[in-house]
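Data card: per-record layout.
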Amino acid sequence: METESDYAAIERRLEYFLLGAGAAMTAGAGIGWGWRAAVGAAAGTAVGWLNFRWLRTGAAALIRLGQAQATAEQVHVPRTVHAKFFGRIVLLLLAAYAMLVWLHLPGIAVLCGLVAVVPAILLELGYEVMHGLHRWNVQ
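The structure for this 139-residue chain is written out next.
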């Protein structure tokens, strides 16, 4: 069984892997397509990292709320929780709009930065397998 510290370690490694993958994408974009593509990949990575952080803290808040109301017959989710989740999406859309329309950054580079979480997850899976942390051998 995994503990809170195990999950915190996974989340911390995911953040590091996300930033590392974003840095690699930024360097590749800069070498292959120039400084504007590098700026786009870096900006996309920053927004993707911020999204990951917001999503993680929002999910943790929902889990705590659910645990606190586990015995309640009528579950109450505050409107602020809904506002934070939808606000996160609105802010991400505004950031993407600003990067693409106002700053005229290359869309593919921005998108690559935004999805840097995908290679980060794959790196985390590889890390867990290499260190024997995979879940299928736990009894």
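Known properties of this structure: The mean pLDDT is 89. The helical segments are 4-33, 35-68, 79-102, 107-114, 117-130.

See the next section for split statistics.
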